Amino acid sequence: MVDKNLKSIEKNYAVKSRYLNKKNACIYVDISEPTSEKWLVKGLPITKIDGTFRIDMQEIDKFMIETEYERRMKTSEKFISVCSIPFICFYFVISVNYFL
């Protein structure tokens, strides 16, 4: 019984290959399938290998780094546009750093 449970866990949660199907890619980064669909629309590369679509783990890592960079750049653009008044600028820096 224990051996059967261990095999089930391994089958469902182990990442065995660099190229993952969508389900294992979601497990790898702990996201839902609808979120993975959004990432694919935003440009996460997908590869067709032997008739099945796979997502490269390295591409997932790269995509996450790039989207984090873009998010931080958008935050800094908001910072620049708000900082015309010194007091507001000081308050905004504190509040933005609190959430990062």
What name is given to the CATH topology?
Arc Repressor Mutant, subunit A
Q: Give the uncertain stretches in residue-range form.
A: 92-98
Gyration radius from CA atoms, angstroms: 20 Å
Helix content: over 70%
Name the CATH class. Mainly Alpha
Instruction: State the domain count.
Output: 1
- The spatial strand order of the largest sheet comes to 1-3-2
Tell me about the largest β-sheet: 3 strands, antiparallel
Euclidean distance between termini CA atoms: 45 Å
Mean pLDDT: 75
The helix-strand sequence is HEHHEEHH
Global morphology: globular
Protein architecture, described:
The chain has 100 residues and is mainly alpha-helical. It has a single domain (16-99), classed as Arc Repressor Mutant, subunit A (Orthogonal Bundle). Helices cover 70% and strands 10% of the residues. It has helices spanning 2-13, 22-29, 33-42, 57-82, 86-99; strands at residues 19-20, 47-49, 52-56. A three-stranded antiparallel sheet has the order 1-3-2. The longest helix is centred in the last third of the chain and has 26 residues, at 57-82.
Layout of SSEs?
Layout lengths: L1 H12 L5 E2 L1 H8 L3 H10 L4 E3 L2 E5 H26 L3 H14 L1
Antiparallel strand pairs: 1-3, 2-3
Concise structural overview:
The protein is built from five helices and three strands; from the N terminus they run H-E-H-H-E-E-H-H.
